[in-house]
Design goal:
By secondary structure, the chain is an all-alpha fold. 75% of the residues lie in helices and 0% in strands. The longest helix has 15 residues. The protein is elongated and about 80 Å long. 45% of the residues are buried.
């Protein structure tokens, strides 16, 4: 089976609850006119960013920095926004300036970790998150992302320690529980994994991802009835959750519910039409229904998308045999054997 999925914490909005559009923009413009006050500039930028007007937010922050060139909050927020919009070089400069004037500001370090992670700079992200929790040991989001960074770099023991610290700091952090579950599951600690996934679902009952991870672990443990209910909840919460639809299809294939497997896979393919796994399993489902023509179409697509996977080629051979196409069947079997070594 594939693996359960780590769940990173949200990057974090630049403000609290989402504002009401017209009124909030009026307030933001009023604050922007008083942007000589750095707190007014920050509030205005947060509102404009939440409303999707990041260019205006960046403009206000630049104006604030002209008046307050050493203000760490303005520099750090500008750097974060530039990073989120993909202006990484400009963000680097703003982060360096923020670090120069506020070397011990944990929010700046945390944002630098996100910035590095967006660029695939694992070591830099790790260092930034470590500095964040050194400066503020209660910062839950930093502990979670530190755990993920350590896991990505192969330090599973360190990752577990970081995620356990996140749980200690905030027992209601679903991401921490779920990511602990992923690490436990990968380490063969299945009971501990399921317990962590259950805690994640308990504290985040509306999280499709948390339900998926629990369902996936239950499926791996052959707890099929429980897994089906949990995965169905995941899909109900997010009908576009491809991994949950895929897991449901695998479950339905195991218990002989081939029509339901087909339905789940077709729904998943609407979201991810170039996913070879989905086409292969759809071919499996059609083949077990003796819908040979549909199976061949799905398996040919899977073989094209996953040319190094022997399974679609072997099953194509089976399907071609059913259609009494011996030449095509022999070629498919030959290709499968060659890929199997």
């Amino acid at each position: 089976m594939d693996r359960a999925f780590p769940i990173p914490v949200n990057d974090g909005a630049l403000a609290g609850a989402e504002p009401a559009h017209a009124e909030s923009l009026t307030v933001a413009e009023h604050l922007a006119r008083g942007a000589a006050d750095p707190e007014h500039a920050l509030q205005a930028a947060r509102i404009f960013s939440l409303e999707g007007q990041r260019d205006r937010a960046i403009e206000i922050l630049r104006q604030g920095i002209l008046a307050h060139p050493r203000h760490v909050g303005l520099l750090s927020t500008l750097a974060d926004l530039l990073s989120r919009t993909g202006s990484f070089e400009e963000a680097d400069l703003a982060f360096r300036q923020a670090a120069e004037y506020g070397p011990d500001d944990p929010e700046t370090w945390y944002r630098r970790g996100l910035h590095a992670a967006r660029q695939g700079q694992a070591d830099a992200a790790l260092h930034a998150y470590e500095e964040t929790v050194r400066l503020d040991s209660g910062r839950v989001r930093a502990w979670v992302n530190l755990g993920l960074a350590r896991a990505d770099l192969g330090d599973r023991r360190g990752a577990v320690t970081a995620l356990e610290r996140a749980v200690q700091a905030d027992p209601s952090c679903a991401e921490a529980h779920s990511n602990l579950g992923v690490l436990y599951h990968e380490g063969g600690m299945r009971a501990e994994a399921v317990a962590s996934f259950r805690r994640a679902v308990a504290v985040a009952p509306d999280s499709s991802e948390a339900h998926f991870n629990l369902g996936w672990a239950l499926l791996a443990d052959q707890e099929l009835e429980q897994a089906e209910g949990v995965l169905e909840s995941s899909v109900r919460l997010d009908p576009a959750n491809v991994e949950s639809l895929y897991a449901l299809a695998l479950l339905h294939l195991r218990v002989g519910k081939y029509a339901r497997a087909v339905a789940s896979l077709r729904q998943a393919l609407e979201q991810r039409p170039e996913d070879g796994r989905l086409h292969y399993q759809l071919g499996v489902a059609y083949n077990r229904q003796d819908a040979v023509d549909q199976a061949i179409l799905s398996l040919e697509t899977a073989a094209r998308l996953c040319p190094d996977d022997p399974r679609p080629h072997h099953l194509l051979g089976v399907a071609y045999d059913k259609k009494e196409l011996p030449v095509l069947a022999r070629e498919a079997y030959r290709r499968a054997a060659a890929l199997n070594g």
